[in-house]
Amino acid sequence: MTKLLEWVFGVSLLGAAWACVTFDLLRVSIPPAYREVAWPMPLYLLVSFGCYSLATVGYRVATFNDCDDAAKELRGQIIEAKEDLRKKGFKF
Amino acid sequence: MATSRQAAGSRGDGDKYSVLLPTFNERENLPLIVWLLVKFFGESGYDYEIIVIDDGSPDGTLQVAEQLQGIYGEDKILLRPRAKKLGLGTAYIHGIKHATGNYIFIMDADLSHHPKFIPEFIEKQKEGDYDLVSGTRYQGDGGVYGWDLRRKLISRGANFVSQVLLRPGASDLTGSFRLYKRAVLEGLIECCVSKGYVFQMEMIVRARQLHYSIGEVPISFVDRVYGESKLGGNEIVSFLKGLLTLFATT
Ligand SMILES: Nc1nc2c(ncn2[C@@H]2O[C@H](COP(=O)(O)OP(=O)(O)OP(=O)(O)O)[C@@H](O)[C@H]2O)c(=O)[nH]1
Ligand SMILES: [Mg+2]
């Protein structure tokens, strides 16, 4: 199953469950209070997922390591490499 | 280090590592990356060879490679040039054909991937007998150097979206510093058709799809000092296109 199909499958499953509760499709007389809670659920889910995404990406950008030491080390090694290569007869 | 240097080339577990170095206009970087590879392979004592696949670089990268071959020997530096720029994917395919190792490293020649991580890749691979080990900028001590906020945001954002849509089981999808079992790489590369960043992403997504095991090693990614980036301006558009294609087909 492709990832796309997985998503379609998952979303339809959730959607069906939501419709069952909100419109009492199975005629099991779900209390109106439940139905009122269920009704705006998709929107809540969407908004919370959006917030979660923004927070996650924001946090990861903020904590993205800056490898200053790695860059410094590399600069040193470049000098060392050039010297050594010249000694070995390399012409730049 | 004295003891490990003594052991150079003599870690007798029969494994050999072929490093594929595709180059296009890397005249300044190639001698440095080769020097570093020789240094770190030498110190750790693993058997290796470096395969330079130059695509007719107009800046004379091939002549540089020939000089290096003269210094380090034809058994260590193999030249497998092609006449013109045919792209990275086919460069790897071309390189593997000539590789004699049972493990293959893929890395960029522009010094953004540091050979000092190679022993860590190898240890990681042995630790879990992984089919592939992928370098990651996004975990542990991994990171980047020389990126501004905008680039970090794009990188993290693109990675998040890809993670959500593809759930590949690896944290760095577009990184291209990886160690493969030879047969695994040969199989994967045949079924991957994407170009650019998406190529690396497709490789790891298909790896997961084929139930290969994936290990990860945190790496620091230092932006290239010399030379120019070969990826064009419409990177984001082609990335999204590729992502959606993978989303619908894998
Ligand atoms: N043989 C060959 N090598 C290539 C080709 N295009 C890129 N390369 C090499 O592939 C490696 C990665 O290319 P880069 O231009 O660094 O791409 P990148 O790392 O995504 O971009 P940067 O941010 O500029 O580093 C480098 O070693 C290049 O020299 C090609 O068409 N043929
Ligand atoms: Mg690069």
Automatic annotation (TrEMBL), chain A:
GO terms for cellular component: dolichol-phosphate-mannose synthase complex; endoplasmic reticulum membrane. InterPro entries: DPM3 (IPR013174). It is found in: Endoplasmic reticulum membrane. Pathway: Protein modification; protein glycosylation. GO terms for biological process: GPI anchor biosynthetic process. It comes from the Eukaryota. It is a multi-pass membrane protein. Keywords: Endoplasmic reticulum, Membrane, Transmembrane, Transmembrane helix. The chain crosses the membrane at residues 43-62. Belongs to the DPM3 family. Component of the dolichol-phosphate mannose (DPM) synthase complex. Stabilizer subunit of the dolichol-phosphate mannose (DPM) synthase complex; tethers catalytic subunit to the ER. This is Dolichol-phosphate mannosyltransferase subunit 3. It comes from Muraenolepis orangiensis (Patagonian moray cod). The lineage of its organism: Eukaryota, Metazoa, Chordata, Craniata, Vertebrata.
Automatic annotation (TrEMBL), chain B:
GO terms for cellular component: endoplasmic reticulum membrane. One of its GO terms (molecular function) is dolichyl-phosphate beta-D-mannosyltransferase activity. Its main location: endoplasmic reticulum. Residues 18-186 form the Glycosyltransferase 2-like domain. Keywords: Endoplasmic reticulum, Glycosyltransferase, Magnesium, Manganese, Metal-binding, Transferase. It comes from the Eukaryota. It catalyses: a di-trans,poly-cis-dolichyl phosphate + GDP-alpha-D-mannose = a di-trans,poly-cis-dolichyl beta-D-mannosyl phosphate + GDP. Its cofactor is Mn(2+); Mg(2+); Ca(2+). It holds the Pfam family Glycos_transf_2. It is found in: Endoplasmic reticulum. InterPro entries: DPM1-like, Glyco_trans_2-like, Nucleotide-diphossugar_trans. One of its GO terms (biological process) is protein O-linked glycosylation via mannose. It is an enzyme of class 2 (transferase). Pathway: Protein modification; protein glycosylation. Its EC number is 2.4.1.83. Belongs to the glycosyltransferase 2 family. Component of the dolichol-phosphate mannose (DPM) synthase complex. Transfers mannose from GDP-mannose to dolichol monophosphate to form dolichol phosphate mannose (Dol-P-Man) which is the mannosyl donor in pathways leading to N-glycosylation, glycosyl phosphatidylinositol membrane anchoring, and O-mannosylation of proteins; catalytic subunit of the dolichol-phosphate mannose (DPM) synthase complex. This is Dolichol-phosphate mannosyltransferase subunit 1. It comes from Muraenolepis orangiensis (Patagonian moray cod).
